[in-house]
Design goal:
By secondary structure, the protein is α+β, with helices and mostly antiparallel strands. Among the domains are: about 140 residues, Glutaredoxin (3-Layer(aba) Sandwich); about 35 residues, no CATH class. The protein has 8 helices and 10 strands.
Length: about 260
């Protein structure tokens, strides 16, 4: 197969050594072989998340201040009353390529991937972005790019204290009343996988909070799938819709039957 080299010299072409072209039956067999490995990968990812939920916590002793749309706020305020907080340090400030019209290209690509926050919020988790740009610039950027996540201005040593003064990263926190703890940190290529509701929840100390998860005793867990909802239909403490319970129960049973060969 001959294709254009997108990043090569103008009009340059190269020959790709493509995989063989096979029959539908051979393709299905190859896919089944790959599926075995993909399922093993998924189980390994679940086991890693279970270990992450058992990571020690680090107490946050200092008081940190940010500027938000309504003025000065604390790290505790960023939780918005929820139990868990994920703070992504995005580079948008003087000296960053793209300023003042754009944030860092990589951070912007990540922001474009952020799932609807209602699903995270339904699991008692808040996602926030933080940069050193003033709030007026952040508001302008969010409006231009269509981003809706809370985005705060760093005013002190938060970025240096949590390893994101020179590079991007996600810091994960949990609170016990007014006591705050750092529970995990993701940066470098780990940031590439972030953006989905599941990737965020798997990084938190409480996880997805579903009964199938391997979590420490006493952690909050609810029946699998039952909390899922349309992003405009979550209601605090609402019981799962009976029709959705029936549908999700049938779906879960079907998945279990396929996995056991029943």
């Amino acid at each position: 197969m001959t294709t254009s080299a997108g990043n090569g010299p103008k009009n340059a072409k190269q020959t790709m050594r493509t995989p063989p072209v096979v029959s539908p039956q051979a393709w299905a067999a190859a896919r089944e072989e790959m599926l075995v490995k993909e399922k093993a990968h998924a189980r390994a990812r679940d086991a890693l998340a279970a270990e992450r939920r058992r990571m020690p916590w680090m107490a946050v002793e200092k008081t940190y201040a940010f500027e938000g749309p309504e003025g000065r706020v604390s790290l505790l305020d960023l939780f918005e009353g929820r139990r868990q907080l994920i703070v992504y340090r995005a580079f948008f400030e003087p000296g960053v390529f793209g300023w003042p019209d754009h944030a860092c290209r990589g951070c912007s690509l990540g922001a474009d991937q952020v799932a609807h926050l209602a699903h995270l919020n339904a699991r008692d988790t808040t996602l926030a972005y933080a940069s050193r740009a003033p709030q007026a610039d952040i508001a302008r950027l969010k409006a231009r790019m269509g981003w809706e996540m809370p985005w705060y201005t760093i005013t002190d040593s938060f970025d240096a204290d949590f390893g994101v003064d020179e590079w991007h990263g996600h810091n994960v926190f949990i609170r016990d009343g007014d006591r705050l703890f750092r529970t995990y940190f993701i940066n470098s290529r780990g940031d590439e996988a972030m953006g989905t509701t599941w990737s965020y929840l798997d990084a938190t100390p409480l996880g997805r909070q579903e009964v199938w998860e391997d979590s420490p005793e006493g952690y909050p867990q609810t029946p699998t799938y039952k909390w899922w909802n349309w992003h405009d239909s979550y209601l605090p403490d609402a019981a799962p819709d009976k029709r959705w319970v029936e549908v999700s129960d049938a779906g879960e049973a079907n998945f279990r039957n396929k996995s056991t060969g029943a």
